[in-house]
Write a structure and sequence with these properties.
Blueprint: H1 5-16, H2 18-26, H3 32-43, E1 51-55, H4 61-70, E2 75-79, E3 90-93, H5 102-110, E4 114-119, H6 129-150, E5 151-162, H7 167-175, E6 178-184, E7 195-203
Parallel strand pairs: 1-2, 1-4, 2-3, 4-5
Antiparallel strand pairs: 5-7, 6-7
Helix pairs in contact: 3-4
């Protein structure tokens, strides 16, 4: 099958992307690893010994970074509906985070509530920007609700979103339960991309 001009352009950019090349050379499974690295360098979310949940973890770039940063005393539990190859220091479960049993199962795997919930998930794209934006915001809202169920007081939530107009409402919703909620855009996100990340810290609730 012939690739479209758009996909051909994406492939050229992907192959020549310095973060893609760097990911290969440093053993990371995706260029997304550098987005989390950059965010954590600035905001210090992944502390030594922390319990971390990585939602929609496959192929595992964020889990790799999290395991490295929290160290052997911490615990990373990664979940996805897709299979994921084993990562040292990461416990993986092939489950849907929307499963009603998922929060309790995750807390059991971690040995208690989480310090951090990560989500680099993206809804399947339709090609219609407004529709895709609404889909990913809905996904982030579900991930945030999951975070509220598993985080301990003071915990943090980091998730991918897309610019499109509803971001202020999402931040306002998060600010009801977190001390601080803001948007961040790491350099590893392509400059021409509408991709953003929402970071909420200082969770006011507390998972049981």
């Amino acid at each position: 099958m012939k690739r479209s001009k758009t996909s051909q352009q994406w492939m050229r950019e992907h192959v020549n992307d310095p973060f893609v090349k760097r990911a290969r050379s440093e053993g990371y499974r995706s260029r997304a690893a550098f987005k989390l690295t950059e965010i954590d360098d600035k905001f210090h979310v992944l502390k030594s010994g922390a319990r971390v949940v990585d939602l929609g973890a496959a192929p595992g770039g964020w889990s790799q970074v999290a395991a490295k940063r929290i160290g052997a005393q911490g615990r990373v539990v990664a979940i996805d509906v897709l299979e994921m190859d084993e990562i040292p220091g990461v416990q993986f479960a092939q489950i849907d985070f929307l499963d009603p049993q998922a929060p309790d199962r995750l807390k059991e795997m971690m040995g208690g509530p989480a310090d951090v919930v990560l989500s680099d998930m993206a809804a399947n794209a339709t090609g219609h920007r407004k529709t895709d934006h609404l889909k990913i915001v809905a996904l982030v809202e579900l991930a945030a609700q999951f975070a509220r169920e598993v985080l301990k007081p003071g915990g943090a939530f980091l998730a991918k979103v897309i610019q499109g107009g509803t971001e202020p409402a999402l931040l306002a919703d998060l600010k009801r339960d977190f001390a601080v909620a803001k948007h961040v855009k790491p350099a590893a996100s392509r400059a021409d991309s509408a991709e953003l990340y929402v970071l909420a810290t200082g969770f006011r609730g507390g998972a049981g």
